[in-house]
Amino acid sequence: MTHLLHIDSSINGGHSVSRELTARTVRNWRAAHPDGTITYRDLGSAPLPHLDSAGGLARLVPAEQHTPEQAESWALSRQIVNEVKQADTIVLGLPLYNYGAPSSVKAWVDHLIAPGLTIDPETRAGRLGGREFIVIATRGGGYGAGTPREGWDHAQTWLSHGVSPTGLEPRFVTAELTLAETNPAMAELIPLAKERLAAAEREIDELWAPALR
Question: pLDDT below 70 — which residues of the chain?
Fold first, then answer.
């Protein structure tokens, strides 16, 4: 039986384009895997605690030497890692906040970087490779080649590098100009924004299309 881990991180609730697109992605996955199961985590409404001085060093201290705070932090990391290990496919919503990933996604990745759990402590090889990792990336503005803010989207590059020690390799589906219909200054970009959204939707619809034909 196949299993999918669905993660949202937008704080915009029902107005979130990334949430709309991850929901579309999950519906398509379910259609292609009618017997599959799904685990859902909402980092936007229930963010993970960031690593701090009380518990964060649990990753560098033998378990038998953990303080209560370190033991609690390590237990949470084990839970997050197990959610990923149980999944054949991961779908993550990645909106762009202040030119980077939401801090909640950074905390999720920090919990995944766990020597002994996701990284072999001797060879440094990642233990989470081989999974399908679909990242639905959304940008309010335009960051493509030739635009004034080309290269200002640091979320995608960071995520690829951030999870690389674990063996995960993200595949990005990106929709940009998502604020065109709500930002008067971007009104002239609405037609282009619709084209970009439709292109992302088509890419999503093709992800598991062969299984439905």
Answer: 211-213
**Contact yes or no for 147/176 (Cβ under 8 A):** no
The CA distance from 83 to 150, in Å, is: 35
Q: Residues 156, 137: contact at Cβ < 8 Å?
A: yes
The upper half-sphere exposure of residue 65, i.e. CA atoms within 13 Å in the direction of its Cβ, equals 6
The whole-model pTM stands at 0.95
How many Cα atoms are found within 13 Å in the side-chain-facing hemisphere of 125? 4
- DSSP codes of every residue in 11-80: SSGGG-HHHHHHHHHHHHHHHH-TT-EEEEEETTTSPPPPP-TTTGGGGGS-GGG--HHHHHHHHHHHHH
Which tokens is 91 given? 């779908």
Residue 194 phi/psi, 5° resolution?
Answer: -65, -40
pLDDT digits (tens, 9 = 90+) for 127-154: 999 999 999 999 999 998 888 899 999 9
